[in-house]
Design brief:
The protein has about 140 residues and is an alpha/beta fold. The protein has one domain: HUPs (Rossmann fold, 3-Layer(aba) Sandwich), CATH 3.40.50.620. Helix content is about 45%, strand content about 25%. It contains 5 helices and 7 strands. It has a 5-stranded parallel beta sheet with strand order 5-2-1-6-7, sandwiched between helices. The longest helix is centred in the middle third of the chain and has 24 residues. The chain is globular, with a radius of gyration of 16 Å.
Amino acid sequence: MYTKVLLAYDGSEAGQKALLDCREIVQWSHAELRLIAVMPRPVTSVAAEGWVYTQEADVAQRDRHQAVLDQGLERLREAGLNAEGELVQGDSVEEIANCARRIGADLIVVGHKHLDSWAERWWRGSVSKALIEQAPCSVLVAITR
């Protein structure tokens, strides 16, 4: 039985499915639940593309990620669940695995959407696939198509 569940949440369709699957597991097992949203590190500058990091852009990005996290927490509260939330910045896989270690999670839940082309799979990679290799506990991957 699971006692501490960590849900990596990004608000996407796959994230919504993971939220629903996680909700059922938590209700069944009466586990503690924590949502984590991972914000990428800011890019310092990309002069060739003409984009330069600004503090305003970082604040706007942080606000967007916080809003996604708050939305997920609200959906869980509406379902009668109590959950803690955490916004972190860094590499998604590292931050999720580190949080799972820190809180003693025995299950990580993530969403995954199958990518249509090999180019998409090569270019974007898979957080869920990489997470399985670094996770300190079991990982449930909720798949959407």
